[in-house]
Design brief:
Elements: H1 3-26, H2 30-37, E1 39-47, H3 53-69, H4 71-75, E2 79-85, H5 93-97, E3 104-111, E4 114-120, H6 124-127, H7 131-143
Helix pairs in contact: 3-7
Length: about 150
């Protein structure tokens, strides 16, 4: 018998079956691969009509953290920053959607148009007067979603 031919055939079989197993185990198909390519993060800052100094500072630092920290991702629409006034009638639904109790910073992950997870960042109120800490906090949280 030709052992080299049998060895090559065995290796190829193992590779093929491993690939099939991986696809079955993870559920990866052509459609789901396309969906993952359409993954994006939306960073929302929700504020009201009344804007105190702290709220304005939180927005300023959020803009800086996202726009300066994720230039490449924003350029290809993998990350979006949305500043939203929840006192406007068309934005009231966000209060219920995200259980908002006050001005808030939310990170939300979408695949296509479907939101798959989101997180509120409560420490913005602790860090609003510590620029470097605030920016690191926001960037770390966003990176956790990438």
């Amino acid at each position: 018998m030709n052992y080299k031919r049998i060895s090559k055939a065995s290796i190829i079989s193992v590779i093929i079956f491993s690939g099939i197993f991986l696809i079955m185990k993870t559920g990866l198909t052509t459609g789901s691969l396309a969906d993952t390519a359409d993954k994006r993060i939306v960073v929302y800052y929700f504020h009201g009509e009344f804007r105190c100094h702290t709220c304005i500072q939180i927005e300023k630092l959020t803009r800086k953290a996202v726009t300066e920290g994720f230039k490449k991702e924003m350029a290809v629409s993998k990350i979006e920053l949305k500043i939203i006034n929840i006192d406007k009638p068309e934005n009231k639904h966000y209060v219920q959607d995200y259980n908002l109790e006050t001005k808030s910073l939310i990170i939300s992950q979408f695949i296509g148009t479907k939101q798959i997870r989101w997180k509120i960042l409560p420490k913005i109120w602790d860090y609003y007067d510590k620029e470097n800490v605030f920016i690191k906090y926001v960037r770390d949280e966003v990176n956790g979603y990438l």
